[in-house]
Amino acid sequence: MMSGRCQPSGRTGLRRKQLLLCCAVFVGAEWGHINLSSHANAQSAPAVTGKVGSVKKQTPVTKRKPAPRPRSIEGAVEDLEVRTSHRNAALHTAGAVTSIGGAEIRALNLNNPKDIAGFVPGLSAVEATSGSVPIFSIRGVGLDDFNASNMSGIGMYFDGIYSPFPVFYSGQMLDIQHVDVMKGPQGFDYGRSATGGAINYESVKPTDQFGGYLTWGYSSYATNTAKGAINGALTDRITDRFAFSYRNGDGWQKDLHNGNRYGASDLLALRNMTKFELDDKTSLLLNIHYTRNYGTPNSPQNTTTDSLMGLPVGTNGVSGSNRDATRVNVGDFPVSRRENGGGAALTLRHDFSFATLVATSAVDAYSRRIYDNFDGSRLERSDYYFRDNYFVQSQDIHLTSRTASPVRWTVGLFESFDHIDGLYKHMEKDLYELPSANFTSDYRQQNVSFGVYTNNVVKVTNKFRLIFGGRYSMDQRSYFGGTVDNDGAVSGVPMANLTHISQTRYNNRFTGKVGAEYQVTPDVLLYATISNGYKPGTYYSAAVGSQQALAYVRPENLVAYEVGAKASLFNHKLTLQGALFDYEYHNRQTLVVANTLTGVAGTLGNVPRARSRGGELQARWVTPIKGLDFNAGFSYMDGIILKAPSSVRGMSLIAPISNNTVLPFSPRFSWDAVARYQWNLSKNYVMAYQVSYTWKDNQIDGLADPNGITDKISSMGMRLALRPANSKWEASVWVDNLLNKHGNTYSFSSNDNSRVEYRQTPRWIGGDLTYNF
To answer: Cys-Cys link to 261, which of 78, 251, 332, 554 (CB 3.0-4.6 A)?
Structure first.
């Protein structure tokens, strides 16, 4: 452990003022609704929040119990209704929005939050460590850092709950209703300021109808999957929905020498939602959730360590480009994982006569213990032990207008507090040819964030509307700790501090958005927006040997220009969304590989100026052939550095960076397509067939790293399903990565300059059986 570690003395006066302000707004809203006279029920057609211009007029109606609906596959009827409303809202929103319904997610066999990236134009998602730190990027904006302590430039939300750290979204998706991906700077409608965009995963909510489903599946590598949900009314005013998902299977990777397996799954996720209808205008939603992951991490492959050492291929690494993606060389390193996390959230919704109040308060915690063969070889050259504990508290309160007026508006405030107690032990025994050469990063990172925001759509004429929004953000980031030379391999003194920081930084920024939209017809929209976003300054928390590598990284700024068009044609049989964008970066935060006292190492740095341009197109077509429909997406992106750094805070780069270098996580081209066909086998049975394909271009994983580039990644999937006409059950067979591609999905240079690569999961075949009740 680090000697002389500093600990923060407690929450600051700044934080106390923020909490008092939040409480005052919350209490004031509550007092207001208690004193207002009762109105008719506002349960009908609630406005879709969180999207520009998506708030619709609501007409109060008399409350009544909904008519019974037919049984459905895992809530497919509910999903169809929600999907339709969200896509209609997206078509009337001045900004690029992709919405994927729960039925589509299940049919495409998307089990992990990052899996949606293959079917969202402009979205990339990779795993930078052994299945624990997914990196999301929208139009090249996101998080380049592989450390779990850093925050993304994309706002990640689960049921409206802000999740700042990658570990919170590395598990399973269960009982999903829809996923919305909103591109461009966000934070004017809800949540925290984000430079790249926002992704919101929404679960199926409780209703007063009894029902549910159970699904069991079996697939490659002896993988069993069980999931289900049960829904119903507890009283006339209380409804509840419980959902679970469990996945267990053997590892898909096998060690060359000892036959040990890696990439095994053992994941459990539980969630219970209880809705309390306090009166016809007010409801509370309690969300309690838990997840754990006891699987075995997958291992990367080291492809050049043997050639660098003059040893036969396969001694410490693996063979070249035609190697088997399932064969790894881990040795005796005790690779393992033990992760647990959970939390609770309470959402208050109240319909005033003039606006709807939504207030969400949430608390989440996560614990992670991982032994990771990070270097991909059987040598201890860059192996890690992660032991960190996370805590996040957040609150978002906003009012959205609901009256018929020329101005549709949202005002709100956001507050969050989080901290990490982290210990990263970096083991490099074989690199230094000593009995041991271990370095430990032991630190506490603490963040306080506060923001007030507004978004407004002003009706100028029946067809022309102006958009303007603004946000004031204030962030405080504290870092206490650094890197210890456990065995004195570099300093000559065991337990000496190689690096150490004890400081607090403050950032505050005004960001804004202006734009216009023109409703050519009720089903055709043109729009143009200019917005800017900002990401607070940060620190690099890995075990590093140079003080400069740990030092503060300045805030990131982005100015985004976007024009687009949306249309629903031929009686809504064909929907189109297209957008062109031009992004200008200042001080873009990115991963840079440099020389330190402990060898080659990644760190975070700022790119003074960069630019990204491109376009996207999405299409959905219900063809004239009954039962046949197509979905497709395409994106083009040209992200380059305009002013390249020559060093990182005085540290030399292992490879030069020049102007016009491609930005990390900015694939030039990507596209996806899904075709579905459903037909009646007979009066009583329905058959459905689906084929999907995704393709992404090469992308750079970090700057100044000659090994940091991925392959072109493609995957074809197929699914065949049979169900009775009443949807009482469904049986399906499916295959992912049908062509058994094994591309490099993430790569980097290890401490000895060898090439380390993570590989694409091989062909996966399985079947599912679902019973609805």
So the answer is: 251
The span from the CA of 741 to the CA of 763, in Å, is 8
Contact status, residue 393 vs residue 363, Cβ threshold 8 Å:
yes
Phi, psi (deg, nearest 5) at residue 83: -60, -45
Q: Are 713 and 721 in contact (CB under 8 A)?
A: no
CATH 3.30.565.10 given to domain 13-772 = no
Nearest CA to 666 out of 144, 199, 187 is that of: 144
Q: How far is CA 475 from CA 136, 192, 421, 472, in A?
A: 22, 10, 19, 10
d(CA 310, CA 754): 13
Spatial distance between the Cα atoms of 379 and 499, rounded to a whole number of angstroms: 26
pLDDT tens profile 649-669: 888 898 899 999 999 999 999
In angstroms and rounded to an integer, the radius of gyration of the C-alpha atoms of the chain is 26
CA nearest neighbour of 649 among 687, 685, 605: 605
pLDDT higher at 100 or 42: 100
How do the domains of the chain map onto residue ranges? 13-772
Note the pTM of the prediction, 2 decimals.
Answer: 0.86
Report d(CA 335, CA 543) in Å as an integer. Answer: 19
CA atoms within a 13 Å half-sphere pointing along the CA-CB vector of 79: 22
What are φ and ψ of residue 14, in 5° steps? -60, -45
Pair 444, 9: CB distance under 8 Å: no
pLDDT tens readout for residues 38-65: 333 333 333 333 333 333 334 444 444 4
Query: What is the 8-class DSSP label of residue 194?
Result: B
